[in-house]
Amino acid sequence: QVQLVESGGGLVQPGGSLRLSCAASRSIFSIYDMGWYRQAPGKQRELVAAITSGGSTNYRDSVKGRFTISRDNAKNTVYLQMNSLKPEDTAVYYCNAHRIVITLEYDYWGQGTQVTVSS
Asked: How many CB atoms lie within 10 A of CB 46?
């Protein structure tokens, strides 16, 4: 079992920045692929950014060049640096840990943190 706790959300003006953090409960964090998802009211949850256990990253097109995902395995933490925020980035952001071992799939979620971009 892996517990994930997000922090760093809040209210920010358009063009501002926030850094989200997701702390994992177990030291085996390093073998999981990690992702940040978001869900806006009335919309489906969508992948924002992901980083593999090996450090490879990918981003949804709308955040490329503005968001950066990173991980610190020594601290069991994954980060999402969000710059040049736009009102359409407003959502609840969720941290995800995922791993597949042969036929077994492990999938854990945090409780979410609210990000509101508004003037």
From this structure: 12
CA distance 18 to 52: 22
N residues, the chain: 119
DSSP secondary structure string, the chain?
---EEEE--EEE-TT--EEEEEEESSGGGGGSEEEEEEE-TTS--EEEEEE-TT--EEE-GGGTTTEEEEEEGGGTEEEEEE-S--GGG-EEEEEEEEEEETTEEEEEE---EEEEE--
pLDDT at 108: 93
Q: What is the pLDDT of residue 21?
A: 98
If you average pLDDT over every residue of the chain, what do you get? 94
**33-59, pLDDT tens digit by residue?**
999 999 999 999 999 999 999 999 999
Is residue 94 within 8 Å of residue 110, measured between CB atoms? yes
pLDDT at 30: 83
